[in-house]
Amino acid sequence: MPQVRIIARNFMDMVAALPAMKLDHLYQNAFICEAILRSLPPLAKKYVIQMCYIEETIPSKSLEEWVLPDGLSKHRVAIDRLLQLRIFSESFDRSTGTSYRLNPTFQENLQKLITYGAVLPREPMPSSVTARLPSLQELENYAMQKWECFLLQLINSAQAEKMTNISPSMMRIFQRGLLTQRDKEAPRLTESGFQFLLMDTNAQLWYIIREYISNSEEIGVDPADLISFMLELSFHETGQAYNMNTLDEIQRSTIKDLADLGLVKLQQGRKESWFIPTKLATNLSVSLTDSSSRKEGYVMVETNFRLYAYSTSKLHSEILRLFSRVEYQLPNLLVGAITKESLYNAFENGITSEQIISFLQQNAHPRIAERTPSVPENVMDQIRLWETDLNRIEMTPAHFYDEFPSRDVFEAACDFARESGGLLWEDSKKMRLVVNTEVHLQMREHLRRQK
Amino acid sequence: MASAPSKLYADDVSLLVVLLDTNPFFWSSSPLPFSKFISHVLAFLNTTLRLHQLNQVVVIATGYNCCDYIYDSSSATNQSSGTGMMPAFCSNLLEKLDKFVTRDEQLEKGGQEGGIASSLLSGSLSMALCYIQRIFRSGPLHPHPRILCLHGSPDGPEQYVAIMNAIFSAQRSMVPIDSCYIGAQNSAFLQQASYITGGVYLKPQILDGLFQYLSTVYATDLHSRGSLQLPKSVGVDFRASCFCHKRTIDMGYICSVCLSIFCMHHKKCSTCGSVFGQAQSDVASTSNKRKTPDT
What's the chief localization of this chain (chain B) (predicted)? Predict the structure, then answer.
């Protein structure tokens, strides 16, 4: 799914956009080094590992010698990324050309990580203190429930049965960009809001986290601290209890917000309180590269465009309503149909056919998911056809020329436009022509020269 | 039987099966002490695990008398934290390795004659392939598997058939066998294994820098190999072992029915039982040269 990548990359861009000082500071934490290492493109990972123990600069030529002609573009992407994140520093020498060196802080931490392993700043609490911890299954249910509750509230505050504790102002920040509200009307989802709903959980999570971090920047919390805390959190072990006393003031208030999102579960003992990271939290650093954690799907699509969703979740039914006509709703089953009208409705809201199809594929019921394709081909084709029906007109910015002094000038202008590949339309009788905007400036120069 | 995987994780998620040579006869005479070797390897394994959360490492010890799994990162409980002295998985692995070596020693009957005895490469290769087959069948999503042989003992010609069978089965399931040979002479078996399966064969020149070799060449995931130029072996020793005396031979006799190889003329093939005609003259019939593996 393309959106996932965009969001993930945006997050790393956020890291890359930090000032140099902050970045160097971030790299002092071994866990962040590891998370960043994992987020790199495969080739970049290889370069970092290869240079991990080399403390001198490496000429870029000797790196390029390894690359096959086919891999050059990937090589460049990898190097750019490394430079952007300041993992590589570039230097130029007249005799050897460009050469690279690993960021010393990053390198040192990586070496430590490889030889000694890394130690979390806090140990899991002994079971004698925490008594009975929730099982992994319970924890996952808890996380999913919290997250769905949050999403429901996000898209439709009236629908949610249980309100989360997230402050309305925070909620409004999350809704920014996803919802629009005209005066006195009920808020409506925007284009990106619809797209957001069709993403998978990890991608949604990163979107929210990103909003959260950029918001906290506005109220004066250092984004670097938050980023490092989030990444560190993802290396904690799911289902273990960690003492709240190990957190500082900012982290403690952050973790309360995270608990509302379902990333951690807070528990109170007799004397102490602790937090238990859920799968959502530990998956944070995975989803930076790809969304590989899969949930069990629930949707079946038949060749007759009928759609069955075995789900009790209100959120699921809300999502399916985005692009299908719901016919029956039973306690654990929702029957709908994908119709032309329902799809047009979705397209109007800015959802694309590819998003719908990938949503259906990703959430396919396990029985269906075994088959290829998991969504019947005729349904996929029809969804795409209906979308292209709406896109018959193509818009090109252009400039219109007329009132040419003579036919010669007109024809010369036509030829010029044709040669530069910008001629869109000509009418030789009335001496009028339309030229692509990109060619407009050259065209003007050309006409001026004619005079 | 198509074993080519249909759905995979993200491109660079790998399953690395490492075959660790623990042959005491080899290590007692090796210029690189085993403790140093193992510290290089542990660092390398740790690196592989750090590169991707879903990366998986399995270590199989290749002993003199037996082989066994000594580490599997998918069954280890704790991944990230350690004691501060070394990554958590290492102590686990070392403990298992220690037990394995003791057991391997107990199985030793004595009576080792001349030269360094070979270790059971065929056994550990088969175990690695079994493990990979199980991963292939475990579900729709699985990592890209590859095998890395860290080997030092000389080839055991008596294992020729078993090893070749393992190699061909790896080739069929598209599992590359990388080999890093630490011993004195090149290993013909491993050269052939890497050549046939599309892996990398390398004999490090400077053993003290083993980690650099491992991280530069063998840490490359299968996806990145598509765009990189990894070391290619210059020449591959394709010599086969004969089935009758397990000797490595340059020229020999090949059964025209089952392609079994013999170092001398027999009346009947010991593998398939075909009766051979009388050789016309000893000189003429040695024209059957070495057997080159197809594809």
Answer: nucleus
Count CA atoms closer than 13 A to B90's CA, side-chain side: 24
- Nearest-Cα distance to chain A for B291, in Å, is 33
CB contact under 8 A, A370 and B10: no
ipTM above 0.90, yes or no: no
* A255 backbone dihedrals φ, ψ, rounded to 5°: -70, -25
Between residues 13 and 42 of chain B, which touch chain A (CB distance below 8 Å)? Answer: 13
Q: Answer whether A50 sits within 8 Å of B87, measured CB to CB.
A: no
3-state helix, strand, coil in chain B (%, to 5): 35, 20, 45
- What backbone phi and psi angles, to 5 degrees, belong to A166? -65, 135
A412 and A307, same structural domain? no
- CATH of residue A404's domain is 3.30.70.2610
Q: What is the pLDDT of residues A122-153, one digit of tens each?
A: 777 776 666 677 787 888 888 888 888 888 77
pLDDT score, position B111: 56
Chain A residues in contact with B53 (beta carbon < 8 A): 38, 285-286
Q: What is the pLDDT of residues A230-284, one digit of tens each?
A: 888 878 877 778 888 778 888 888 888 888 888 888 887 777 788 888 878 877 7
Specify whether A381 is located in the same domain as A427.
Answer: no
Q: Is the pLDDT of residue B138 over 90?
A: no
Angle of helix A30-39 relative to helix A42-50, nearest 10 degrees, comes to: 130
Q: Which domains does chain B have, with CATH numbers?
A: 14-225 (3.40.50.410), 239-295 (no CATH)
The reply to whether B91 touches chain A by the CB within 8 Å rule is: no
